[in-house]
């Protein structure tokens, strides 16, 4: 018999920011990432739409929880999916923010994303943060929303483990007066030559086209640069690539 | 009066691989990247479709060259464009490969891409290669085509400066017997601790989901790994991000 039109409308409405914010829920799609979500006890999964085989196979993860589980056909999943190749399962999840921000000053490194626009970039940055053990990623109000389905999918589950919060940089600095805020920039100190990193260092990554905004520029205490080969014509690196290189440099400079 | 239907059909046909390969031509779109293309003397620009203002403003770059220049309206450009936001100008370019491969053994670092699928990733990798002065990027036959419009645009002009060639890894190794081939892998040597890099080192980057293929695995002389923070849940980094970190590490380890 399939899903009702109203159900389809409800779920697909969560592909749109306005409705995610109204209902405080978001979508997570795909075998592996939904398994991770169910294993991670901190999130409230409210509804689960899956192929019968998938639900059977993962019954152990679902049972004894107050999840509204619905068996659907592949055709129904295609109607619900925000992805090009529909997956076996979609979850509707409550949009609670993890309250771990008090740890910020004790953590050595954190990120502030100043106007990242591309969902694929934000997802990749969350993966990078998770890979290098950076637990706090702040987003400027202009940055793409973390619960955008493309961000969730590109993060490959990293959104489960990295704490994100939307906040002005000025407000972050007021709340954590010990922070040392460094911007990723084309004209700063060689990131591979930085010395004496202290806990409470925050790296600011700017917008893909325009870099760090003027209002954030004024709040920086230093600038980090990825050295370019002499004579290279390329003017900048992709924002996620630059984030990866900077975190790798700051994390691994004491290793080699 | 606008462009004829046949003209529109001809240009948009070059958005498709089959026709690019049949006619040996590809498209380059956008103000900045077309300017770079015209300034770089090594490419044959055959046709140019631009807004009158753009063509006026860049008359100096166009004059005295045998380019078929056509003034078009914004509406026409929209019909021709492969991009979400149409640009001011589109060029049809001859698909000649730059013959600089004989330099390979003298260059310190090169890349081999083993099955990269995402055009955005390939474009970002060309930017990274250009940034770090890596002039040769080989592509396995399974890798996305470099003349795909999304690759060209994501490369931000780096395709003009980085020499690419489609080739089996085995054939590259036979042609350049002095090459040292290292794979990017989850279980190799810490890339930040690598010592004694010699000219003629080639780094192999695997497919986004599956990593390095079995046939290439057998041709590796070593493996490089980006160390992960203990306890991190993320299983891998985006392929372009990993490429950026590896090239940065190999380039900059002697700096800090």
Poorly predicted ranges of chain A: none
Helix vs. strand class of chain A: alpha/beta
As a percent range, the share of strand residues of chain A is 15-25%
Largest interface, by Cβ-Cβ below 8 angstroms: which chains and how many residues each?
Answer: A-B, 44 and 44 residues
Individual helix count of chain A: 11
What do we call the CATH topology of the largest domain in chain A?
Alpha/beta knot
The CA-CA distance between the termini of chain A, in Å, is 61 Å
Percent helix range of chain A: 25-40%
Number of strands of chain A: 10
Number of folding domains of chain A?
A: 2
Q: How is the largest sheet of chain A built, in terms of strand order?
A: 7-6-5-9-8-10
Mean pLDDT of chain A: 89
CATH architecture of the largest domain in chain A: 3-Layer(aba) Sandwich
Main sheet makeup of chain A: 6 strands, parallel
What is the 3D form of chain A? elongated
Assembly state of the chains shown: homodimer
Q: Supply the CATH class of the largest domain in chain A.
A: Alpha Beta
In the CATH hierarchy, what is the superfamily of the largest domain in chain A?
Answer: SPOUT methyltransferase, trefoil knot domain
Write the element-wise H/E pattern of chain A from the N-terminal end onward. Answer: HHEHEHHEHEEHEHEHEEHEH
